[in-house]
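STRUCTURE:
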């Protein structure tokens, strides 16, 4: 393989798993927390043991001070038998006491008196003694058996020996305390490891249970993809259910779009069959009789074809644009413009028009062409059937607007009010038209989520068409 081909390949990545991320994150946090807990507990235990040991040594030091005695010749003595701890009598037992005489803060007699446990050794305290009378000094040093000792020192003086000061020292082996700390640390480490294992098992169970709805969601999506289900089915937690509901709404909307597209395609094919069949029949007749096609018939049928195609194109454009945000059309100006156009188109009819609108402009939440198509068809019907007047009034409604168009024509029979909304239905075959006007209005209004209502005025005074649309007052 060439170098260029090697460079063209994208770098491979390890699969990213939400389960692995959660488990590693949880285990990392638990490990760090338990490690810090173990260090803290071990340190606290060690400090506690050492403090307890130091307190015991302080009691030994206090007892040593109590047992100090001066003879008539000023000789310092200690009743060794009064020191109750038997370790003080055993050589190199790990518990020792020693008395040094000081001068100017420095020892002049090292090991003036010492416990039997020191045998023939002295604690190497030269240069490290306390100088402040009564002050307690704590330190560590190596003992006669090279053990680690905790050393407590205090300088005392007595009225029985004026001008003299003595450094009293008590030392104890830290080995037992360190061994106890190590035993505690090992037991604690074992307990924390066991706890980490249990917590890791609980974390795995929690992640598995917590991510189970995602696996269920994956199966539901697979069912939708394979065509076994039209929507995501199943019960999901409240954190996931809103996503499922929204996705189901999208699926419903897509299904509705596909169904409308199929319906419109079928309607268009059905609508074109008749004029195409007429044209085909006339062409066959003309060829059989060696005659020319009738121009008027051809134009009429082509106009029907164009009308149907325009209608379906209009529906397709409205369906694609009516959900776009930020589209607004001023209703007052659109109605006024349409009235002027209708007045010129029906100039041969002596009609009066009247428009009633609120003081504040109304806005239609949609395309201007769609509004003109809706109101234009309604106004065209009103002008076509009106006898003397056409009235229009606009009003705002909660969350939208309503346009009412009235004429003083003959109206429509009550049994025909629903029928005239269907495609191609014409109540008067002598009046020019394709029968698509109200059907177009009905479809566009439904696309915008509105409502079209037709009703006869009282006492046969005409027809009122009321259309509700999304919109409201201008800001």
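SEQUENCE:
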């Amino acid at each position: 393989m060439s170098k260029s081909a090697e460079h063209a390949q994208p770098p491979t990545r390890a699969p990213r798993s939400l389960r692995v991320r959660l488990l590693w994150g949880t285990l990392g946090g638990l490990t760090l927390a338990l490690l810090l807990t173990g260090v803290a507990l071990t340190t606290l235990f060690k400090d506690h043991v050492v403090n307890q040991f130091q307190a015991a040594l302080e009691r030994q030091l206090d007892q040593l001070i109590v047992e100090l005695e001066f003879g008539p010749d000023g000789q310092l003595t200690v009743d060794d038998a009064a020191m109750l701890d038997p370790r003080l009598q055993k050589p190199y037992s790990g518990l020792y006491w020693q008395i040094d005489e000081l001068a100017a803060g420095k020892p002049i007699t090292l090991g003036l008196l010492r416990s039997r446990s020191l045998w023939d050794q002295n604690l190497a305290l030269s240069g490290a003694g306390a100088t402040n009378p009564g002050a307690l000094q704590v330190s560590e040093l190596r003992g006669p058996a090279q053990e680690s000792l905790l050393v407590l020192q205090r300088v005392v003086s007595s009225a029985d020996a004026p001008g003299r000061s003595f450094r009293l020292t008590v030392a104890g082996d830290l080995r037992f305390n360190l061994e106890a700390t190590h035993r505690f640390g090992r037991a604690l480490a074992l307990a924390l490891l066991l706890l980490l294992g249990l917590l890791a098992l609980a974390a795995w169970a929690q992640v598995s249970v917590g991510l189970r709805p995602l696996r269920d969601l994956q199966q539901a999506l697979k069912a939708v993809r394979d065509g076994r289900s039209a929507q995501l089915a199943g019960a999901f937690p409240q954190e996931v259910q809103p996503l499922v509901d929204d996705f189901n709404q999208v699926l419903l909307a897509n299904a509705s779009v596909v169904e409308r597209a199929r319906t419109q395609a079928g309607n268009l094919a059905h609508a074109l069959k008749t004029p195409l069949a007429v044209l085909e029949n006339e062409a066959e007749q003309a060829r059989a009789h060696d005659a020319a096609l009738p121009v008027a018939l051809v134009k009429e049928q082509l106009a029907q074809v164009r009308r149907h195609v325009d209608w379906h194109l209009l529906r397709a454009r409205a369906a694609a644009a009516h959900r776009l945000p930020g589209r607004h059309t001023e209703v007052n100006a659109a109605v006024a413009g349409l009235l002027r156009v209708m007045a010129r188109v029906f100039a041969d009819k002596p009609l009066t028009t009247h428009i009633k609108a609120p003081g504040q402009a109304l806005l239609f939440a949609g395309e201007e062409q769609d509004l003109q198509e809706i109101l234009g068809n309604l106004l065209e019907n009103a002008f076509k059937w009106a006898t003397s007047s056409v009235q229009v009034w606009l009003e705002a409604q909660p969350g939208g607007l309503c346009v009412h168009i009235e004429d003083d024509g003959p109206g429509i029979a009550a049994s025909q009010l629903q029928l005239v909304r269907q495609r191609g239905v014409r109540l008067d075959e002598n009046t020019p038209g394709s029968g698509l006007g109200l059907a177009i209005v009905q479809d566009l209004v439904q696309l915008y989520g509105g409502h079209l209502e037709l009703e006869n005025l009282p006492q046969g005074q005409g027809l009122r068409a009321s259309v509700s649309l999304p919109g409201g007052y201008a800001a």
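REMARK: Confidence is low (pLDDT under 50) at residues 1-6, 424-435.
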